[in-house]
Write a structure and sequence with these properties.
With 336 residues, this protein is an alpha/beta fold. It is 40% helix and 16% strand.
Length: 336
């Protein structure tokens, strides 16, 4: 299923599908309007029917959706799909794709440039994302839910992802010094799972604030990170920013019976409609999707073409280039 959404969502999805078309795969696409496009076409940002269709799909390619105007009765398509399909592990890899765009300079003058090369595995179904806010006497209280079940499955996923992708270290990111019970449970289950299944993998833990600093000052020290929902949201934008910007950062959300692939960025209203959005994040999400669909060769071809275009200096204005979204896609397609 293709759900392009709002703002730059349809622009980067169109560019991605155009490039992917050059792979000559026989993919059957099912297009569904979501977000404000869904409100206009179907009277709802996501219908129950769309959710049922999504359940039957091998994969979902999602663009982005924008925050609705305050007067619209809204249920978030993205959070609905993540929750309803139990897409419990959100994988967000980040590494500088083009060295010149990395914000990470040498720590020691003249020394080697450290490489940030992390995979953030973010718990994707609970935490503050249960969105239960209650008015209290002098303000609002928000519930943050951490369960043993959701914690255990995301930790298992992180170790299995690490092993399958030749990664050697998994770090649990938490704030158990403050949230002793909830993040304490997240950490405790991590240690239990690690002792159970990760004899071949190095594992440790770190407070989320210290992790944010380490990603900037000692970027080469990190590998796979497993985080509660909101910490992963924030750290993945930090990692994207360090590696060249949100225009480059892909993601995949995985469950037992489904998967959704989307750029980490949002609908970027400040540049929407201008044809200048960077499609790389969406294209690399497409690469993750092709791997998931069992087309690893096509995935490597598409990835190679995107990286080759970037290495040749082809880029959109966020990276200082002069190509438009579709112009970039044309360059990728030619390389296929
Ligand atoms: P954003 O990611 O949309 O934009 C942040 C900045 O990054 C902007 O300056 C934007 O121009 C730039 N940017 C993002 N993607 C880019 C790309 N592909 N190419 C070039 N520049 C790019 O985040 P925001 O401004 O916090 O949110 C805007 C809207 O998007 C909000 O309504 C928010 O709720 C929504 N949002 C949706 C998703 C999603 O659908 N997955 C994710 C994040 C934010
Ligand atoms: C993301 C986005 C979403 C999130 C928003 C739009 C709810 O920021 O996918 O990173 O916080 O998960
Ligand atoms: Mn985010």
């Amino acid at each position: 299923m293709v759900a392009a959404g709002d703002g730059i969502g349809p622009e980067v999805v169109e560019a991605t599908l155009y490039a992917m078309d050059g792979l000559g795969l026989d993919l059957e696409l099912y297009i569904e309007p979501v977000g404000m496009a869904g409100v206009q076409e179907r009277g709802a940002p996501i219908t129950d029917e769309t959710v049922e269709i999504a359940r039957d799909m091998d994969a979902i390619l999602f663009g982005a959706v924008e925050k609705p105007p305050p007067d619209v009765d809204y249920r978030s398509p993205l959070l609905t799909l993540r929750k309803e399909l139990e897409l419990y592990a959100n994988v967000r890899p980040a590494r500088p794709l083009v060295p010149t765009h990395s914000r990470l300079g040498p720590v020691v003058p003249g020394g080697p440039v450290p490489q940030l090369d992390v995979v953030i595995v973010r718990e994707n179904t609970e935490g503050l994302y249960v969105r239960r806010e209650h008015v209290i006497e002098d303000g609002v209280m928000a519930e943050r839910v951490i369960t043993r079940k959701a914690s255990e499955r995301v930790h298992r996923f992180a170790f299995e992802w690490a092993r399958a992708h030749g990664r050697t270290k998994v770090t649990c990111v938490h704030k158990a010094n403050l949230l002793r019970r909830s993040d304490g449970l997240f950490l405790e289950t991590f240690e239990e799972v690690a002792r159970d299944i990760a004899a071949d993998i190095e594992w440790s833990d770190m407070h989320v604030d210290a992790m944010a600093a380490a990603m900037v000052t000692d970027p080469g020290s990190q590998d796979v990170l497993v985080t509660p929902n909101l910490y992963g949201d924030i750290l993945s934008d930090l990692a994207a920013g360090l590696c060249g910007g949100l225009g480059l950062a892909p993601s995949g959300s995985y469950g037992e019976d489904g998967a959704l692939f989307e750029p980490v960025h949002g609908s970027a209203p400040d540049i929407a409609g201008q044809g200048i959005a960077d499609p790389v994040a969406c294209m690399l999400s497409g690469v993750m999707m092709l791997d998931h669909l069992g087309h690893p060769e096509a995935a490597r071809r598409l990835e190679g073409a995107v990286l080759d275009a970037l290495a040749s200096g082809v880029s959109t204005p966020d990276l200082g280039g002069e190509h438009g979204t579709l112009g970039f896609a044309e360059e990728v397609r030619e390389r296929l």
